[in-house]
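Kindly inspect what follows.
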Amino acid sequence: MKKKYASALLQLAIIAIVLFGLNTLLYLIPDIGLATDDFIYPISVVYLFFFVFSAVIISVLIFISGKNREQLGYAFLFLTGAKMAISYVLARPVINKLSENPTEKINFFVIFILFLIIEAYYTARLLNNK
């Protein structure tokens, strides 16, 4: 159990670092002309928020899979719903921001979807693990 837990969190951390690096490099390319100066939340804060939330969700799912496998799907749905609600509260200033440049909105929701895919992948692995 501990090996599965450590492996999943290590993989999550590696994926998050790679995605953060690629996202940061995207804003450093001068020809694209994207600026992060007017972002409400720095990219690092958004990645940290989603990484911590995903780590908590994966940890809880691993714990539940060891105790009661039948409830794993329900736990995933509940935890993902809670993450969406908290993300919406966090994203409200970004959504309501009047700007001609929608880069921050797109960035926020792409990061949300990427981490959601990672969580769904680990949940599917836990559900298929016999």
